[in-house]
Amino acid sequence: MSEQALPAGVKTAGIRRHSGELRALAARWGIYVFLVLFIVVSGIVAPSFLHARNLSNLVIQLVPLALVALGQCLVIMARGLDLSVASVMATAAVVGTSFSGDNHAVLPIIVVAVLIGAATGLVNGLLVTKRQVSPFLATLASMIVLQGLRFAWTHGAPTGAMPPFFRALGTQSWHQVPLSLFVLVPIAAVVGIVVHRTILGRKIYIIGGNPVAAGLLGYPVAVITIGAYVASGCLAAIAGLILGGYAEIVDNSVGSGFELDSIVAAVIGGFALSGGRGTIPGALAGAAVLVLVSNIVLLVGLPVQFQIILKGLVIVLAAACYRTR
Amino acid sequence: MSISSPAKSPTFRPSPHVIRLGLVVLFIAVLIVIGSVLTDRFARSTNFLNIYEQSTDLALVSLGQTLTILTGGIDLSVGSQISLLSVLTSGLINGDGSLVLPVCAGVIALGVLIGVVNGLGVVFLRIHPLIVTLGMGAVLQGVALLYALGPAGSTPDGFDALAYSRVGGLSVSATITVLLYLLVAFLMRRTATGRAIYATGDEPAAAVLLGLPVRRVTVLVYALCGFFCALTAIYLVSRFGTGQPYAGTYYTLESVTPVVVGGTMLSGGRGGVIGTLLGAYLLSVLNNLLNFMHVSTQIQLIAQGLIIMVAVSAYVERKKVA
After folding, report:
1. Could you tell me which chain A residue has the CA closest to the CA of B321?
2. What is the ipTM of this complex?
């Protein structure tokens, strides 16, 4: 629907008029300004917001969403969409409880969960690139199949416990710094550097912005697109393990809603579903906005239903702000 | 379904969409054969009449979804619309028979209004329909939960006749649904608006250049989608006796399945509503068959996911959309 935009960061000096430049500037930095304003206003409205304990809790809630959003960004950049992430998260969490439940099982759990995520991403990527299935349907179908397989494996009610390692990772902090942040930061740094500082990243933008041109330029469009889905699956699996550790009781709905929330985070962060636009730090800020909105609704004492209502308004507003001409 | 199919081609070649419709019918036939072989209770007229009746809700909501998808859009707010409208229907009627007509009229009007807002959002904000309707869906779900956290209100005696009454064994609501499908299919083929819906989805830029009322058509399809959501909500209230704020959740993504299985392309402009009706019957037959085989819900899910995968990878899409 919307027109293509140049990837953020591409120099367009002298081409656009001043209003266009202002607009581009707002699109580039607006999310961070909004985030800071939001935090300041929240701190004034509800002083308990800035308590170390609340902030630490917010980060714990943010990490799984941010991890999934990172993968979702890669897919959306390549003009795709991944609806299967929540299903991958729940499956990873179920894998987490399917072993002995002590810390010896940590490595096998991580390997199996990430492999499941990668396999799901591979199927998604192959359907999208080799069979030209629309990403919405390909990932919807794999979401449903994975859900069925998981139900069949658990007979509907997962039993067993997450190893203490994941419980600690999901809930505990080191000097008020949540442990899960030590997972997110390196992963986000790698993804950010690949996307914004390497030729590969540039190619993903171009594939999303104009797949035909990317093909004509000789880029391995299919390989890169499949890679984006595989990365998304792997990141969702890791997020599922952390969220499983946080939730403690693992059931089949771990991660439900994350498929849409991760898309919302990406859109707030400047990604367009038509591909080729958006930045990784922007998407992380988008995920933070989502978590903060939910938190502030509770802190100011609004009914919990306003969390969903505000989320809906924020996504439409954000998309409207980023709209290009 | 191309508009300019050559009338006098030397060898007759059915359009890809007709082939797809044939495939769906063939698949339904195969399922029926399998069912009759596996159990002698499957191929009985009472069972077929049940399948017919059970297809109503999904067929109704998918009819609206087909129209939005034909314009190259999608409506991901259908689930929340049905949830909100169903809980409003039973909550406002609250057992009072004299309120049935005004409340149902109001609910239908509200469904259309929600659809119009969706359509205006798509047209004037120029945001991807998926985002607009996702946001609308979240807002409506929140409003539904503000209205009631659980099942609300009740319906007067006789209201269940809407869902359960049969004439000559045929479910009335399912038959009305079929008639709605035929009406929409006829209008899509025979009216300028119908052709404009196809053109909008096929090549929006060209449709604008041709002077087609793209904006009006876009608002219209989302309004119609809201209309069919309202009908689905009223049907569900009649069937279950009450509405509840999560009544529609399942339909958000589920409504897309019959559409794509029926051969309508998510990229817009290709397909049609009759395919969707066949797709809804296919899913209804499949679920019925799996129930007869005492297959657990999980296997039903797997089967359904695989059918989507097979169907959409068999119908290769020419254009890609998000």
Report:
1. A134
2. 0.80
